[in-house]
Structure formats: C-alpha cells, structure tokens
Amino acid sequence: MSLLDIYLQKNGKKRYDVFKETGTSQQQLASVNNKNVSSYSVKTIQAIAKTVEKSEGVVLEELLQLEQENPYFEVFNVEDLLLAFKNKENYIVIKGEYKKEIDKFAESQLSETETLGFQLGSEGIVTILAEGILQITNLFSDKDAEQKKIESRIRRYKFKRIKNGDELLLVLRQLDY
After folding, report:
1. How far is CA 136 from the centre of its chain?
2. What pLDDT digit, counting tens, does each position of 9-45 carry?
3. By C-alpha distance, which of 76, 86, 75 is closest to 2?
4. Kind plus residue range of the DSSP H or E element containing 75
5. C-alpha angle with apex 55: 44 to 25, nearest 5 degrees?
6. Engineering a disulfide at 49: which of 10, 59, 117, 133 sits with its beta carbon 3.0 to 4.6 angstroms away?
7. How far apart (Å, rounded) are the C-alpha atoms in residues 145 and 13?
8. Residue 163 — pLDDT band, cuts 50, 70, 90?
9. CB of 17 within 8 A of CB of 42?
10. What pTM does this model have?
11. Is 168 exposed, middle or buried (0-12, 13-18, 19+ CB in 10 A)?
C-alpha cells in the first residue's frame, strides 16, 4: 500500500512536490512507500510536514490514522491510474470524468461467475488462449503505449460500482484467494 502517495493526494500534493520543496530524494520517498508509518524517519516526516504545511505531529497523527483506515487510492486521471498500478494498490476508486472512460473496460469484462465457468469448463485453457489473443491484438493495435499498459493492467482488477454509480471501485483480484 502506498500510504505516502494517498496522504499526499489527500493534501493536494505528490512525491515530486516533496522533492521540489525539501530536496528529499525521490529514492528515499519511494523506499518509504511500502513501510509502516512507525518506520518513517524523522527527516521524511519533516519533509512531508513542510510540503503540506502542517506540523510534524499532525502529519504523523494523520498518517497513523490513515494507515488504520486501509484507504482507497483515488484516481481522477490517467497519471493517477498509472501510479496506482505501479504501486500495486489493492483498492482504487475512480472518480469524476475519468470514470466515464474506464466504464468501457468495466462493460467489456466478464462477471466473476462467467469467468469461473469458462475456467472450470475448459480446465484453464481458455485463460491461456485469451491471454495469447490479447497479446497478439496489442501487437497489431494502433493504440499508444500508455493505453495498452492501462488495458493490460486493468485486467488484474475486478470492477464494482459504488455510490449510485458515481464512482468505480477496482479491487485487486489476488485479494480473493
């Protein structure tokens, strides 16, 4: 879970802003991403606090609270979605106008029951064939690399509609096993 990215997002900032504001290296911020808040260094907490213009104590308290909530990564555009995929977020909430673009992927995906039926009925061969067909299709597709990356990674997630269809929740499939 990339707690740092979620915290910064809630405060309207990104890791690059922390780097630009404080000089804290991108590598140090990236290494913090998969750690518990209790293991963040004082220097990192100070850099985050300076960037979001809050005291170190408030930042630490908010990070600890956020860690307990198991937050969802919120996506409003392509860059946010690619960052969520890169961080292998367990839960991604797609909001705003970008949700309309992602809806076409949700509509083309088979339900869990349909997928399970195909996999059991074919003893897994359909899954292998489907992946091969998708790879060949991508090879000859005229879509840009970014779009291909989104299409391939979004297949790792299940789609769920939340809040009267205004938001779309992506749940990493491996969490079900």
Report:
1. 26
2. 889 888 889 999 998 888 888 888 767 888 888 999 9
3. 86
4. strand 73-75
5. 20
6. 59
7. 26
8. low
9. no
10. 0.61
11. buried
* Both structure tokens of 56: 């170190």
Helix 56-69 to helix 3-10 angle (10° resolution) is 120
What tokens were used for 88?
A: 């292998």
Rounded alpha-carbon distances, angstroms, from residue 87 to 5, 54, 57, 71, 150: 9, 26, 26, 14, 14
Token duo for residue 131: 């992946």
Q: Which two tokens stand for residue 137?
A: 């299709």
Task: Report d(CA 42, CA 32) in Å as an integer.
Answer: 12
Within 8 A by CB and 6+ apart from 172, the residues are 88, 89, 90, 91, 156, 157
